[in-house]
């Protein structure tokens, strides 16, 4: 059985905890210049059908720390532009003997389709508006470092929830871990139909931020203006910007987060983005360690086998 | 040449006949029927004990894909699938490539469907309402009607322009031609690929709101009321659409409507992890909708059942959800799913079940089908159904060229065993061989 990481929604809490513990362990080892496990004799395909510098570099960096070789595919140069179906592309990579895939795609569910045909582990690096599991893991690690635990925390996710894969993955992770998740934004971007995500919905920013431990602002896509879901960026900023005034409603020790890239002056002002409450750079840094954990976890064969745990030094994952 | 269907349950909704008896076909025509039929000798005898003998089923909506998309289905494979499903008359939708928007294409379709190699069922063409189904200019409906179309429709590209729809209805009223209307406001539905609701938010896919359907149903019903044109609402899927249709019927609008079995069988949850076999238009809705849809079937607000058979090649459906085409191959599952979900679940009586699968769709579209009455039809159209046969639907055993069916692996109770169009055109492998014999006199 391959271990895929296509959605946080599919993970049990124990798996989430395992991934977060691995991440924390890798981080302390790297920080202390200690050895981390190596994934040898494997080649990881980085298949990005949608532009992403941050996430791709983060995965590459994670792979380098694990001595895992990578092969890069950029959508522009791939055979998808020559009319090949996604399924055929995935089958080609399978028979070129790639051992695992990290995949980003603008279509929700594309990594799920890839997982069906690839034959090795597939890690979702963001699919459409569906999920972005490693982003949520990095965010969770960041919160745990500051707050000790996720349980019982009040966390507001602010902005374009409807179209956000970051919001979905975070919702699942945080609510599974016992946090209280709120969605805050205009009715066009946080519609009633998010009923399967049983978060409390607020359309008024100050009410949504009342007493929260964490504020996560989401990136605002310019297309929303074209779709008529917002009249202007300016209006959005007036109503939903995370700034000094808005943060007064949150707890004094609130954490301010953003998955990036940040539209400075729209989703946040400088006070929020650069102030002492901001953990945005921690999110970026932790992204590398959770991706190490995700790769290690995905390549680690099923439970019960007598493989060394990463807690013992010089562990290598056997092929 | 005489064929005797013996000792079955005769179900003819048109005559309100429900009795155990026999039916005699002579020279391709039904000549006698009844419980008191004292004929034991015929060239061929089929022992139908325990089976239903019903008018051949009539499908208001099938996509045969020929011309233009023969990799999905051909007239031959589509009509074979229809025969296997118990259908003797099917309406072919106009969204072929090119669309059925001129008389020459109607001629082609009718010739080819009547030629050897096809399944032997009657194919009634539905013509395009606008040229190229582009919603800009009405087709030559008079010529199409003379070529043999039974209805006009722009099918999956519903006419958005209300003025043009009104004009189409004026023409069709004059020609006594029903319009089949797939109801969808494209500004609300654009870019959507499943119901707007729980699953769309869960999977991060753009949803199609129920209002997209209901606004268009309301508009088309109002135009029908206003013009007097018969309008057949295709593929009802929401409880709101049912209530609108109920209201507009009570006001006297000459409207009828249909439902596909997908919509009373599955909810949006069936999509699970991006399963494109459940990408249907209009989208699968919710349990609350199904409950109202079942009531509406029982009380007659929903007039009939359509397979909406929409075959697609596997490489077209093994794609990310939003890229996949809408629709599923369904013809051979209709009897199984309808009997299981409607008859055995006590939603419909046997007569009502057959009425919605045969007599009523025939009546709506003015087709010579849907009855067992002797001498009524020029050629006998009969199906024999085993209402209690339990089986698993297996797409590998279907005649359709495409295997994109949401019913694969489902357990059904009820199966079509025999189909007659004049003579036998389909006999199921599960029909017991000893039940078909030549009578002693002729042996």
Strand element count of chain A = 11
Structural class of chain B: alpha/beta
Q: Give the integer mean of the pLDDT values of chain A.
A: 91
Question: Strand percentage of chain B, roughly?
Answer: 15-25%
CATH superfamily of the largest domain in chain A, by name, is: Aspartate/ornithine carbamoyltransferase
What count of structural domains of chain B? 2
Shape of chain B: globular
Q: What's the SSE pattern of chain A? A: HEEHEHEHEHEHEEHEHHHEHHE
Give the CA-CA distance, first to last residue of chain B. Answer: 14 Å
Q: In total, how many beta strands of chain B?
A: 19
Radius of gyration of chain B: 21 Å
Biggest sheet: strand arrangement of chain A: 8-7-6-9-10
Report the CATH C-level class of the largest domain in chain B: Alpha Beta
Sketch the major β-sheet of chain B: 9 strands, mixed
How would you describe the overall organization of this protein?
The complex is a heterodimer of chains A (319) and B (443). The two termini of chain A are 14 Å apart. Chain A has helices spanning 13-31, 54-65, 86-95, 110-118, 133-147, 165-176, 205-209, 223-226, 233-240, 244-247, 270-274, 280-299, and strands spanning 38-39, 43-48, 69-74, 100-105, 122-127, 154-158, 180-184, 200-202, 214-217, 255-257, 316-317. The model of chain A is unreliable at 303-308 and 312-319 (pLDDT under 50). Chain A has two domains: 8-132 and 284-302, Rossmann fold (3-Layer(aba) Sandwich), CATH 3.40.50.1370; 133-282, Rossmann fold (3-Layer(aba) Sandwich), CATH 3.40.50. With 319 residues, chain A is of the alpha/beta class. Chain A contains twelve helices and eleven strands. Chain A has a five-stranded parallel sheet. In chain A, strands 3-2-4-5 form a four-stranded parallel sheet, with helices on both faces. Chain A has a two-stranded parallel ribbon with strand order 1-11. Chain A is globular. In chain A, helix 1 (13-31) crosses helix 12 (280-299), helix 3 (86-95) packs parallel to helix 4 and helix 5 (133-147) packs across helix 6 (165-176). Chain B has 443 residues and is α/β, with parallel strands linked by helices. Chain B has two domains: 2-53 and 379-437, Urease, subunit C, domain 1 (Roll); 56-364, Metal-dependent hydrolases (TIM Barrel), CATH 3.20.20. Chain B contains 13 helices and 19 strands. In chain B, strands 1, 2, 3, 4, 5, 16, 17, 18 and 19 form a nine-stranded mixed sheet that branches. In chain B, strands 6-7-8-9 form a four-stranded parallel sheet. In chain B, strands 10-13-14-15 form a four-stranded parallel sheet. In chain B, strand 8 (122-128), helix 3 (141-147) and strand 9 form a beta-alpha-beta unit. In chain B, helix 2 runs parallel beside helix 3 (141-147). The two termini of chain B are 14 Å apart. The model of chain B has no long low-confidence stretch (mean pLDDT 96). The A-B interface holds A 9, 85-87, 105, 107-110, 112-113, 117, 127-131, 162-163, 165, 168, 191, 193-197 and B 196-207, 273-274, 315, 318-323.
């Amino acid at each position: 059985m391959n271990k895929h990481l296509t959605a946080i929604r599919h993970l049990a809490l124990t798996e989430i905890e395992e991934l977060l513990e691995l991440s924390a362990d890798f981080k302390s080892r790297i920080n202390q210049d200690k050895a981390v496990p190596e994934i040898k004799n494997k080649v990881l395909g980085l298949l990005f059908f949608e532009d992403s510098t941050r996430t791709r570099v983060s995965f590459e960096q994670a792979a380098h720390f694990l001595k895992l070789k990578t092969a890069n595919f950029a959508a522009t140069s791939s055979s998808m532009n020559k009319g090949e179906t996604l399924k055929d592309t995935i089958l080609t990579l399978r028979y070129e003997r790639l051992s695992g895939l990290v995949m980003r795609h603008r279509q929700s569910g594309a990594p799920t389709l890839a997982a069906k045909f690839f034959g090795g582990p597939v890690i979702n690096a963001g699919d459409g508006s569906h999920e972005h599991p490693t982003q949520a893991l990095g965010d969770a690690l960041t919160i745990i470092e500051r707050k000790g635990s996720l349980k019982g925390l009040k966390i507001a996710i602010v902005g374009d929830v409807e179209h956000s894969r970051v919001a979905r993955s975070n919702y699942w992770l945080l609510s599974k871990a016992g946090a209280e998740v709120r969605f805050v934004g205009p009715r066009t971007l946080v519609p009633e139909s998010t009923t399967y995500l049983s978060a409390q919905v607020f359309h008024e920013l100050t009410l949504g931020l009342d007493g929260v431990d964490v504020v996560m602002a989401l990136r605002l896509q310019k297309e929303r203006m074209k779709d008529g879901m917002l009249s202007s960026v300016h209006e959005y900023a007036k109503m939903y910007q995370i700034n000094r005034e808005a943060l007064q409603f949150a707890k004094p020790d609130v954490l301010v987060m953003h998955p990036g890239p940040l539209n400075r002056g729209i989703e946040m002002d400088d006070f929020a983005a650069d102030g002492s409450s901001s953990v945005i750079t921690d999110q970026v840094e932790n992204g590398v360690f959770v991706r190490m954990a995700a790769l290690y976890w995905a390549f680690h064969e099923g439970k019960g086998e007598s493989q060394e745990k990463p807690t013992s030094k010089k562990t290598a994952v056997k092929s | 040449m005489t064929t005797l269907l013996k000792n079955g349950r005769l179900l003819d909704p048109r005559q309100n006949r429900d009795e155990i008896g026999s039916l005699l076909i002579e020279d391709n025509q039904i000549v006698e029927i009844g419980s008191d039929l004292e004929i034991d000798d015929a060239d061929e005898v089929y022992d139908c004990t325990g089976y239903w003998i019903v008018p051949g089923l009539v499908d208001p909506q099938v996509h045969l894909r020929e011309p233009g998309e023969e990799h999905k289905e051909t007239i031959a494979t589509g009509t074979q699938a229809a025969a296997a499903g118990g259908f003797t008359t099917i309406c072919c939708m106009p969204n072929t490539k090119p669309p059925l928007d001129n008389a020459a294409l109607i001629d082609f379709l009718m010739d080819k469907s009547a030629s050897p190699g096809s399944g032997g069922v009657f194919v009634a063409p539905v013509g395009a309402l606008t040229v190229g189904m582009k919603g800009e200019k009405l087709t030559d409906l008079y010529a199409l009607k003379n070529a043999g179309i039974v209805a006009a429709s722009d099918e999956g590209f519903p006419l958005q322009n209300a003025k043009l729809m009104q004009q189409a209805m004026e023409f069709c009223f004059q020609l006594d031609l029903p319009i089949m209307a797939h109801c969808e406001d494209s500004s609300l539905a654009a870019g959507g690929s499943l119901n707007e609701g729980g699953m769309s938010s869960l999977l991060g896919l753009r949803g199609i709101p129920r209002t997209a359907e209901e606004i268009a149903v309301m508009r088309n019903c109002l135009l029908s009321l206003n013009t007097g044109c018969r309008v057949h609402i295709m593929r009802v899927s929401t409880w709101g659409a049912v209530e609108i249709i109920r209201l507009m019927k009570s006001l006297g609008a000459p409207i009828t409507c249909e439902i596909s079995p997908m919509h009373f069988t599955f909810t949006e949850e069936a999509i699970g992890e991006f399963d494109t076999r459940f990408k249907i238009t209009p989208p699968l809705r919710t349990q609350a909708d199904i409950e109202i849809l079942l009531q509406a079937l029982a009380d007659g607000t929903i007039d009939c059942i359509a397979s909406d058979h929409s075959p697609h090649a596997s490489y077209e459906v093994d794609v990310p959800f939003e890229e996949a085409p809408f629709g599923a191959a369904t013809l051979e599952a209709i009897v199984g799913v309808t009997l299981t979900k409607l008859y055995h679940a006590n939603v419909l009586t046997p007569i009502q079940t057959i009425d919605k699968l045969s007599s009523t769709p025939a009546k709506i579209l003015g087709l010579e089908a849907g009855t067992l009455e002797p001498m009524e039809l020029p050629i006998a159209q009969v199906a024999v159904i085993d209402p209690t046969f339990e089986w698993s639907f297996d797409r590998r055993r279907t005649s359709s060229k495409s295997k994109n069916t949401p019913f694969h692996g489902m357990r059904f109770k009820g199966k079509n065993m025999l189909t007659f169009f004049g003579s036998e055109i389909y006999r199921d492998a599960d029909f017991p061989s000893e039940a078909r014999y030549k009578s002693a006199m002729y042996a």
